[in-house]
Inverse folding.
């Protein structure tokens, strides 16, 4: 049997899923969208599968997460639903529960965090709550593994008996009650045709749910009758359609909680959270505190943990490649084949492996912040300023990660609700100057601006941010005209992160990166190797200046000449920089002999500044493009490459031409 695990964000859903499935998990995407889908066999019940649905607050079609959840429940027809609810915040969590009950499927309510309720001397009468809702209610603590076997037994029993909820009507009188029942009778045949419960369809029509209206294929006369009924309901209730339905549901929830829930005031977790928030969400201190936290995370990731591990792994990979190369030479393998295996295949794999420690370390620290409840505060604090450029507060974290590396930044953008916000955020990530560009900045500022090195470096970072804001503004006025999605964010109590959840997230991100990005990066590496190793007649070349890559560089030089750097060696370095931005330096070192004088023969201070700006802005590396392709599709990846390169060319052209006016 297949069970769907549904619930709000921060309700303990991931922890419960990990405990119920253990290592029997499969990660992929829902068909046709980039929303992550996890499924796994339930421990002790190998033939039963649990599907972890995205954390949502309702079944309204506002975000891609809500849409895929609704589609899976309606079209996927799971055998049962396990609805996890945060017992410490039961009123808000039950809002989704009432909508799930309307789907008329076997459902069991998992009342999570009951240990915290008991610790604060509170109680919930689960039997009475079960009677009120018409579904089984099982008290659990996912973090402490309490009640999990009972939960699975109840879910299996409900699914095997096809035990449907005994109650679907949550209002007994009033305009909302009459309107829902009138519309239910009107659309009964249409709902039966598309295999959707008429009560669920009716409530969606009352809310003004356009996808449901289209799916039912109602006649114009039926649509007019529905709108007339809703208008009468709004007039009588004195509020709009969505608020009227929300009031109906919350009135039922409030009455049920009054009868079933006993509280003894504020919990100690809540009081602790309020004290911490007095600093971390303070009007003036919140942003400096966040920047300090992220500075520590970046320092640990790129300098202490991830950077050192990456260096050790890189040294190990280099030693392994060197040993393989020596073995192939001793074996007498054909030099071309040896070059292909060593410089094409192994170097490509090594480049991928070099990212793993950084990705694992970064997501380790970010998952700690997420699991503790802090990242919810960051999104809340930054939502207002971010909306000025068409984004929500959730977009800030991926953008900041982009200063370290674009690859995990793009992967972090998958947490955003809605394809629009995700695409716009990914579009802006390359404007954040990643650490791979730092060697280029250091070399050029030392060679051409030794007295103003720090100023030029800071200007590049700040300039990238400002140009990103400009790009977002342009995109908002042209392509992304829709407003950001309504921002609904729970501020959960601060909690100690779950070690198992953190480690599971680390493993998922590393495995996903290797599985998805490896093929793209390896393919690009082999292509670059081929272009570097052969001329147009497919003869091997001893000198890189005679290769097809150099030939492409000479043709590309015409494009870059208006920017002040028209030498083919510079164009070649830009092309190899597509593999990794550090390759710009190594390519120039090989082609110019590695001397500073050779570099200064190719650039003037003005053209060097133009080149630095182009390097800052042009297409992200192939690893990042591979991840963008995986997250948003091939077309979006191509658009990103073309847009970034075109934007970089225009910015560098303006800087160089304006500078020439003052020389």
């Amino acid at each position: 049997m297949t069970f769907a695990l549904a619930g709000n964000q921060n309700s303990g859903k991931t922890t419960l899923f990990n405990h119920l499935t253990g290592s029997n998990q499969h990660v992929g995407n829902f068909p046709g969208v980039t929303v992550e889908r996890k499924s796994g066999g339930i421990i002790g019940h190998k033939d039963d599968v649990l599907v972890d649905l995205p954390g949502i607050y309702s079944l309204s079609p506002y975000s891609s997460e809500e849409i895929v959840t609704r589609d899976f429940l309606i079209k996927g027809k799971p055998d049962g639903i396990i609805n996890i609810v945060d017992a410490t915040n039961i009123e808000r969590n039950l809002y989704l529960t009432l909508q799930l009950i309307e789907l008329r499927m076997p459902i069991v309510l998992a009342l999570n965090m009951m240990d915290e309720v008991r610790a604060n001397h509170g109680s919930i009468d689960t039997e009475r709550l079960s009677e009120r809702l018409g579904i089984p209610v099982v008290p659990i603590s996912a973090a402490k593994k309490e009640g999990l076997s009972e939960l699975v037994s109840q879910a299996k029993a409900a699914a095997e008996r096809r035990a449907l909820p005994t109650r679907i009507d949550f209002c007994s009188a009033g305009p909302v009650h009459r309107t829902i029942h009138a519309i239910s009778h009107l659309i009964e045949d249409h709902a039966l045709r598309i295999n959707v419960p008429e009560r669920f369809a009716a409530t969606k029509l009352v809310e003004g749910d356009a996808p449901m209206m289209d799916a039912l294929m109602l006649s114009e006369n039926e649509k007019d009758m529905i709108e007339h009924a809703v208008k009468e309901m709004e007039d009588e209730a004195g509020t709009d359609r969505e608020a009227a339905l929300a009031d109906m549901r919350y009135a039922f929830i409030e009455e049920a909680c009054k009868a079933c829930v006993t509280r003894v005031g504020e919990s100690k977790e809540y009081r602790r959270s309020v004290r911490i928030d007095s600093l971390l969400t303070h009007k003036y201190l919140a942003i400096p505190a966040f920047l300090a936290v992220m500075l520590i995370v970046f320092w640990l990731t790129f300098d202490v943990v991830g950077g050192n591990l990456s260096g050790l792994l890189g040294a190990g990979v280099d030693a392994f490649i060197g040993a393989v190369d020596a073995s192939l030479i001793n074996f007498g393998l054909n030099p071309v084949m040896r070059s292909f295996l060593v410089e094409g295949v192994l170097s490509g794999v090594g480049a991928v492996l070099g990212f793993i420690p950084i990705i694992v370390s970064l997501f380790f620290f970010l998952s700690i912040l997420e699991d503790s409840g802090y990242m919810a505060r960051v999104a809340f604090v930054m939502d207002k300023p971010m909306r000025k450029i068409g984004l929500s507060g959730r977009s800030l974290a991926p953008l900041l990660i982009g200063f370290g590396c674009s690859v995990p930044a793009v992967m972090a953008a998958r947490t955003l609700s809605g394809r629009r916000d995700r695409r716009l955020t990914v579009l802006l990530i390359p404007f954040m100057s990643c650490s791979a560009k730092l060697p280029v900045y250091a070399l050029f500022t030392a060679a051409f601006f030794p007295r103003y090195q720090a100023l030029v470096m800071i200007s590049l970072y700040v300039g990238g941010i400002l140009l990103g804001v400009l790009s977002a503004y342009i995109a908002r006025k042209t392509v992304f005209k829709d407003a950001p999605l309504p921002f609904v964010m729970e501020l959960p109590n601060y909690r100690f992160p779950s070690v198992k959840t953190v480690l599971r997230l680390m493993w998922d991100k590393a495995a996903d990166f290797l599985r998805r990005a490896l093929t793209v990066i390896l393919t690009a590496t082999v292509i670059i190797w081929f272009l570097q190793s052969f001329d147009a007649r497919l003869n091997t070349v001893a000198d890189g200046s005679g290769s097809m890559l150099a030939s492409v560089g000479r043709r590309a030089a015409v494009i870059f000449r208006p920017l002040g750097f028209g030498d083919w060696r510079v164009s070649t370095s830009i092309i190899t920089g597509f593999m990794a931005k550090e390759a710009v330096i190594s390519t120039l070192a090989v082609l110019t002999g590695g001397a500073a004088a050779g570099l200064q023969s190719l650039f003037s201070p003005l053209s060097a500044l133009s080149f630095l700006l182009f390097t800052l802005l042009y297409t992200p590396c192939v690893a990042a493009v591979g991840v963008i392709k995986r997250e948003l599709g091939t077309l979006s990846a191509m658009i990103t490459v073309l847009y970034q390169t075109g934007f970089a060319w225009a910015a560098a052209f303006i800087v160089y031409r304006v500078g020439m006016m003052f020389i």
